């Protein structure tokens, strides 16, 4: 197993004109640093085009960075060829050799590396045992006759048989149907934990990132905005982007004006607790509130017109969705909360965030609460 250091990596594609939302050009990776401890799984999330796959390719050696370094176990491998790095890669398309049975797919590596048939045989047998129930059966079939999930299992087995020091996975289950995805992700996670393989796991699916990763790296525009456990990202986001990216339904962000300890928002005014009023600037800000961070029907509530309700399947609660001025708001309400078209809402200030009116800097983050 390897520890991995990604140090200040920059990468600009030759033919590339990556244009930011503000119209500026930027490289695909713009100074990315990230450390993975031995055996750790780090999920990488971010919207399309933010550089997730490029990061994986640079770590794999499929692309070289323009500057910065990649270290495995403290050794600089930045310009070492992929074949010599001992990485196992699993991508969205399984890329199994179609004419070979599962077993051939696993043994191919030994063939091209001039290793003995006995070794290939033994390692394949060991891997089948470690991969668990039913894997042996898959080895006797060609990829065409396997389901997507089964193909992905073989692809993972093909990586494990090589005893990689590092696993790189890029949306490995995103083209499976929902049920299979659920099963396969449980299986992948079990394997990663069992073998304690250091893993970088790219996905655009937040739930998957939470499930797979010991930690999660949130990327945007070629940069890592924050790395942490889900609870850290959720409770103490580094900026407004992470605050709204992590969590579903997302945090409501409401333009407001603070004056003399009171917060004016569309349709109402909230009273700040004294300690918070003393620590916040006056003037324009943005108040961030997660669905569970609202109090309903308090005296100084602002009116929220309820557009629709959604039952939370695993809890005795619903989400109420509506608008406060222009801001989208989701509120967690008890399941037996009366069905009304308007409710009045106030932030529970122990759970509320305050951000600058412009930019993304947080003025106030409530800290880690007992969330779940
Ligand atoms: N080979 C290439 N040549 C030129 N530009 C590229 C190349 N590969 C990626 N890019 C550009 O670099 C940026 C980052 O791409 P990358 O594939 O790393 O993003 P991503 O976060 O993995 O996106 P997605 O979630 O859509 O797969 C994108 O703007 C993309 O268009």
TrEMBL record:
The lineage of its organism: Bacteria, Bacillati, Actinomycetota, Actinomycetes, Propionibacteriales. It comes from Actinopolymorpha singaporensis. One of its GO terms (cellular component) is ATP-binding cassette (ABC) transporter complex, substrate-binding subunit-containing. Keywords: ATP-binding, Nucleotide-binding, Transport. The keyword Zinc does not apply. Residues 4-246 form the ABC transporter domain. This is sn-glycerol 3-phosphate transport system ATP-binding protein. The keyword Transcription does not apply. SMART domains: AAA. Pfam families: ABC_tran. Coiled coil: none annotated. InterPro entries: AAA+_ATPase, ABC_transporter-like_ATP-bd, ABC_transporter-like_CS, ABC_transpr_MalK/UgpC-like, Mo/tungstate-bd_C_term_dom, P-loop_NTPase.
